[in-house]
Design goal:
Structural class: mainly alpha
Order of helices and strands: HEHHHHHHEEEHHHHHHHHHHH
Distance between the termini: 7 Å
Number of helices: 18
Helix content: 40-55%
Low-confidence stretches: 1-19
Largest sheet: 4 strands, mixed
Strand order of the largest sheet: 1-2-4-3
């Protein structure tokens, strides 16, 4: 049973700043397996190294993984490094005024902070492997400039992170992005406070939570499991950041949880397999279609997170491994709102 405090605002503040379940608060890092992720700043290598050093760096990593192929072929359209014209393409890319401004912003805004992010991510992934056994964590994380193609891309063993998408909406390089391709709500979400969160969420979604089947409720609970696991391994992350919401948008959802659920039920959407319905309630956007525009997007994900949180509160002996194996209908059946 979800209990709401009469002092709603106070409860929101409490929930936004703390983790209510102490079973995930293990502060002694000696309990964790000491996995060491390798972090590679390939963005700096691409833009700072001269061609012989760049060639050596590419040769070292290119055939070991798919991340650099993804970067060169899909994101930057530079071609295959083994082609004779590749370094000509690199030089043209480096000399572009907008690219130079973009790289300067990455240097000045983020590069000095990368070591801190690396330490924190190592800690969080070690917590993840402590709580959930026999699942992988990344071997390598690449810091990249994907030219706004992707925030986070996960392969079997690696993560690529597009640093340019975390510069902040006030940066001129972000403001200059074409509005017909990058809507304002997209630019508003390019905040550094989401960087660690996005890496963890994408890895958990890709490698931990089983793919949902066709209905909205299954997709909702799939995302609910992802966010609950993130909250468990990162208990000090505010809940509005867990969900990638602005704080005021999160507060709106907490006040309107019952109305959101009633809308899903009244419109016969809970078990809908319609692709548009699923997209409306689980995909990114300026808001959730069908509900007030002052509310946030992805409200199906929010309700899924509340369902999973409610289920785990009712079953204090359950582990995160247990949660991964719990059918969606078991979680759905226990969901209640006062």
């Amino acid at each position: 049973m979800i209990r709401k405090s009469i002092l709603l605002i106070a409860s929101i503040i409490l929930l936004a700043t703390s983790c209510s379940d102490d079973r995930w608060r293990i502060n002694d890092s000696n309990n964790f397996k000491k996995n060491k992720i390798i972090f590679i700043d390939f963005d700096q290598a691409l833009f700072k190294f001269n061609n012989p050093n760049l060639n050596a760096s590419i040769s070292k990593y290119y055939d070991q993984n798919e991340m650099l192929g993804y970067l060169f072929l899909h994101c930057l359209s530079l071609g295959n490094p083994k082609d004779s014209l590749f370094f000509t393409s690199v030089e043209l890319f480096r000399s572009d005024p907008y690219i130079q401004m973009l790289e300067n912003d990455i240097d000045n805004t983020l590069r000095s902070k990368l070591s801190g992010y690396e330490s924190n991510l190592n800690d969080k992934f070690n917590r993840l492997s402590f709580f959930i056994k026999n699942k992988p964590i990344p071997k390598r994380i690449y810091w990249l400039n994907t030219l706004f193609t992707s925030s986070v891309f996960c392969s079997e063993n690696e993560v690529g992170v597009g640093l340019e998408r975390y510069l902040g909406p006030k940066k001129m390089v972000i403001k200059k992005l074409p509005s017909e391709q990058f809507f304002q709500w997209m630019k508003d979400g390019m905040k550094v406070e989401y960087l660690e969160r996005d890496i963890l969420v994408n890895w958990i979604f890709t490698h931990y939570v089983p793919e949902a089947e066709e209905s909205i409720i299954q997709k909702m609970i799939q995302w609910g499991k992802v966010y609950y696991i993130l909250h468990a391994i990162y208990p000090d992350l505010p809940l509005h950041n867990v969900l990638r919401y602005q704080k005021e948008k999160y507060e709106w959802t907490e006040k309107n949880e019952s109305q959101i659920w009633k809308y899903l039920v009244s419109q016969s959407l809970v078990f809908s397999k319609n692709e548009r319905d699923i997209s409306n309630f689980t995909n990114d956007g300026p808001f959730t279609p069908g509900l007030p525009e002052k509310g946030p997007d992805r409200l199906g994900q929010y309700i899924g997170f509340k369902m999973v949180s409610n289920f785990m509160e009712n079953h204090e002996s359950k582990t995160l491994n247990d949660l991964l194996n719990t059918p969606y209908n078991t979680i759905l059946q226990e969901y209640q709102i006062d």
